[in-house]
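Here is the promised in-class demo. Please do not try to memorize the tokens; focus on the logic of going from shape to residues.
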């Protein structure tokens, strides 16, 4: 028997009907709730023992059905010291820490939107891999002024709750990183805005006179494997166990880092990513991530106050 916690999180106050669907599922599986704890009117923890004969995967599949039917998220995880004892949290950037996809913004700036979206659709249909799609998209940017990233900064919108989530995690002693398949000038900027410890992303080559992009990508491409590798690398540098880490992202190329981390959360992700991720959160604010780690709203507010 392993003691588990299921965190119910809703965009609106949790309805009795949603709570009941969860209780009915546990009853059907002959599992019983030992106790529950309200984290806010939108989030609640339920603690229960899970026999090893009933795998977590089997339970997760059933839970996801309830989530889809009742429009609620239920995050399952062992109720152990690692839940709240995170020492490293890594984030994807585009559509996770920020609300946009930077490549689309650059494409609009350079007036190559159609070409970029046709490469994106080749990649989404599995006809080319991430590295190839990045190289092809980057090549369309040849000649674009190197000031492009500077000009985009004013258009970038941080995801609501990103500041609050990072502030609380820093206060609790977590190291934070952005691991992005996007570009390093903006990843570094997000790092400084949110007070993160690390930023890793792709580097676009600049012409010798410094005025324009050459359309080439320099160094290791940050793809799914690289994100997982960087997570391991940062953990090792900080003497942090992988069990003490969490990865948050929205894309298919975030799944490997989610599997490598102690826990992984798909944030407002595509259905296929939600299905494969250890947990999902469909929320307006990234701050709701703190419910998954067991912080009540009162505790969050106290940590945010000073
Ligand atoms: Mg993303």
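The designed amino acids, position by position:
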């Amino acid at each position: 028997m392993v003691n588990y916690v299921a965190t119910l999180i809703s965009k609106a106050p949790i309805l009795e009907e949603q709570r009941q669907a969860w209780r009915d599922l546990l009853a059907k599986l002959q599992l019983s709730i030992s106790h529950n704890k309200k984290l806010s009117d939108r989030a609640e923890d339920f603690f229960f023992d899970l026999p090893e004969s009933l795998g977590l995967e089997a339970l997760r599949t059933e839970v996801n059905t309830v989530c889809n039917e009742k429009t609620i998220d239920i995050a399952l995880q062992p109720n152990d010291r690692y839940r709240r004892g995170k020492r490293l949290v890594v984030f994807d950037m585009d559509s996770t820490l920020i609300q946009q996809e930077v490549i689309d913004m650059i494409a609009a700036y350079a007036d190559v939107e159609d070409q970029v979206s046709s490469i994106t659709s080749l990649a989404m249909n599995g006809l080319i891999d991430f590295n190839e799609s990045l190289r092809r998209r980057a090549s369309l940017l040849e000649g674009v002024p190197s000031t492009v990233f500077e000009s985009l900064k004013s258009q970038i919108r941080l995801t609501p709750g990103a500041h609050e989530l990072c502030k609380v995690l820093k206060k609790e002693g977590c190291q934070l990183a952005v691991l992005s398949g996007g570009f390093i000038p903006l990843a570094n900027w997000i790092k400084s805005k949110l007070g993160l410890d690390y930023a890793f992303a792709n580097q676009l080559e600049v012409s010798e006179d410094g005025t324009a992009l050459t359309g080439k990508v320099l160094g290791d491409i940050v793809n799914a494997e690289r994100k997982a590798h960087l997570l391991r690398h940062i953990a090792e540098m900080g003497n942090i166990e992988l069990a003490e880490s969490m990865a948050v992202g929205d894309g298919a190329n975030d799944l490997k880092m989610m599997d490598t981390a102690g826990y992984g959360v798909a944030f407002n992700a595509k259905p296929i990513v939600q299905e494969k991720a250890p947990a999902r959160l469909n929320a307006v604010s990234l701050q709701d991530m703190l419910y998954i780690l067991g912080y009540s709203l009162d505790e969050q507010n106290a940590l945010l106050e000073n």
